[in-house]
Amino acid sequence: MQVFDRSEYEGRLKRTKERMREAGIETLFLTDPANMNYLSGYDGWSFYVHQGLIVSLDHDQPVWVGREMDKNGAKATVWIDHGNLHSYDDDHVQSPVGKHPMDFVARVIEGMGRGDTNVGVEMDAYYYTAKSHQRLQEKLPEATFSDATLLVNWVRVVKSDREIELIEEATQLSEAAMEAGIDAMGPGVPESTVAAEIYQTLVGGIEGMGGDYPAIVPLMPSGEHTGTPHLTWSDEPFRNGDPVIVELAGCRHRYHSPLARTAVVGGVPNEMERVAEVVVEGLNAALDTAAPGVTCEEVERAWRETIAKHGIEKEDRIGYSMGLGYPPDWGEHTASLRPGDDTVLEENMTFHMIPGIWTDELGVEISESFRVTENGAERFSAFPQKVFSV
Amino acid sequence: MQVFDRSEYEGRLKRTKERMREAGIETLFLTDPANMNYLSGYDGWSFYVHQGLIVSLDHDQPVWVGREMDKNGAKATVWIDHGNLHSYDDDHVQSPVGKHPMDFVARVIEGMGRGDTNVGVEMDAYYYTAKSHQRLQEKLPEATFSDATLLVNWVRVVKSDREIELIEEATQLSEAAMEAGIDAMGPGVPESTVAAEIYQTLVGGIEGMGGDYPAIVPLMPSGEHTGTPHLTWSDEPFRNGDPVIVELAGCRHRYHSPLARTAVVGGVPNEMERVAEVVVEGLNAALDTAAPGVTCEEVERAWRETIAKHGIEKEDRIGYSMGLGYPPDWGEHTASLRPGDDTVLEENMTFHMIPGIWTDELGVEISESFRVTENGAERFSAFPQKVFSV
């Protein structure tokens, strides 16, 4: 059930170890589920309990640590030898008697002979709590600790051909789901009905291919709520004249292809068409700029200078590196398309560019996921770049 | 758009402050999205960036802190005055220049005149990272810190009548989705197709009522993977003879009603029927035991003693307090139905009891969500307690 060849995992591990050496980290403890998956293949909805992956410069394979109940799931998904799976008993789960899974993790690290090394931890990663860090420090008194936040995320930033293929598959799901959502919308239709159609397609998939759950639920703020981007659906009906912004992502083996479009119930006002033209012009100017050797901030600048010609002044983060992800986010938290980000684009980096223009009366958001090729940016999706009348 | 009357939120706040006083906590900083929602009404998929709620013994209302982009979502969902919403600029989001949202939180706490108090933080809550804690400590040098993990979770454990209503509504969604999933299953049907039908119903809802996204995706390990409870669906087809365990929850305004059932593709083997009878007998014995004044461990014991009569010896956590939740979990992390948990049941506590029996060849899981009433446990769902042939 491994999604990638063993050699691909081994290459990832090698690049991770290079970064560890550069950072003076001898042992790395990861809790970000995407980083765990990236290096081990582990996949499961088990990140609601403490778990992690240990990478040691002295060991050929990463070591998985999780709940006993999840060890079979690990066996079914990882490429590493099953002797490298260590699980803690259920009395560590939300324990009233003070047992903590990090006590167990510390014992595993000691058992690997790494208790006195420099241990890198993801200080600001999802699921690495303040308590986890406190306990790990207490139980590994001979270790020193370094902040390894984003270390593996930066290894993830350039995709392999197989990863690109998965994002391409995810794109087919994104497009089908966007179409299903737009088709379902109309005056009097509850938001939840549209969300259900989107889910049905995202998960049910298309001929020959099903979809995974996306790391973020489909978002579709509408009416007076288009300015509240992270509000989820209600069961209120759409009304004539409502603008709707749909943001969603198909997902294949945890790889995403985000896509956002704007629609209006009952016809698109002229003013909105005009704003949409500016958004599309700016979006494509930014896409035309992206190429190997160009920096992230230069891509944003192309957007900003284009819309400035139309009298619109704004400085924003208009995109971010994306790919492998688990709830709560499909973004990789590394490169951002924004002023001040001088990350240099390389081939097979993948981004979600999601610019928008907001006036007091209306907002238009049109996004593209793209990869950097030697010839410049290549959109994953061919979904029409316009505001839809529904 | 508030889900509860203002008086209900005020009552929750009052009970929270009582616990704060008992614990010597003057200022409480919460990041668990369920706790934020419980006290403020705030609802949105924004927990992928840092945010939180501040409760001060000296202030009448909680104070919300989040990203500027999410302030409108807060205005749309909270009961508190909008002057109590404080938002940070986007240059704090995954900042390459070292800005951290907790720097901003510290300034808000200082601005409230609480910089030199005892600050309770949820050391082991989702989304309170090691870095968050480190930064908050650095930026509030005059404060002392206490661990307030689960403080509000324990306030949540007894539900109001309105909360019970929402769980009852969620139950209708759970039952409809379980039925849709079971109806869709069959030999040759891809797992993803069944997951899609379940989602369609969970979200699209039933006549007159839509559903929210559940805090955990529908889980449906099947075939050789029924022993891997947290593996999610693939697009492999179900095969004749495959057992399938479906665990899902309808969700209304973030309140859940979890439900699990076992099915077999193409007919239930006799041996499995016999195991199912034992599971049902044990489940109902435990339900019959639950009542105000009884402890959690006594409920588990009734299960254990019942299955022991059939020669099965196992000691497990068979359930947990549930209700309001966000990804990654609908459990409340407070009372558990397991040996050693002497929490005394009270009226309107709500649990998901999910016992199972596993042999080398097969496993059966049948669950019930229930509330404690003065007359004992009351199941939320009336879904048949049996193994389904699909």
Description:
Two copies of one chain form a homodimer. Chain A has 390 residues and is an alpha/beta fold. Chain A folds into two domains: 150 residues, Creatine Amidinohydrolase, Chain A, domain 1 (3-Layer(aba) Sandwich); 229 residues, Creatine Amidinohydrolase (Alpha-Beta Complex). Chain A is built from ten helices and 16 strands. In chain A, strand 5, helix 5 and strand 6 form a beta-alpha-beta unit. Chain A is globular and about 70 Å long. The two termini of chain A are 41 Å apart. The relative contact order of chain A is 0.11. Chains A and B meet through helix 3, helix 5, helix 8 and strand 10 of A and helix 3, helix 5, helix 8 and strand 10 of B.
SSE diagram, text form:
The structure is a homodimer of 390-residue chains.
Chain A: H1 6-23, E1 27-30, H2 33-40, E2 52-56, E3 63-67, H3 71-77, E4 85-88, H4 101-111, E5 118-121, H5 130-139, E6 144-147, H6 151-155, H7 161-184, H8 191-204, E7 243-252, E8 255-264, H9 270-289, H10 296-308, E9 319-326, E10 329-337, E11 350-353, E12 356-358, E13 363-365, E14 368-373, E15 376-379, E16 388-389
Parallel strand pairs in A: 1-5, 3-4, 5-6, 8-16
Antiparallel strand pairs in A: 1-2, 2-3, 7-8, 9-10, 9-11, 11-14, 12-13, 14-15
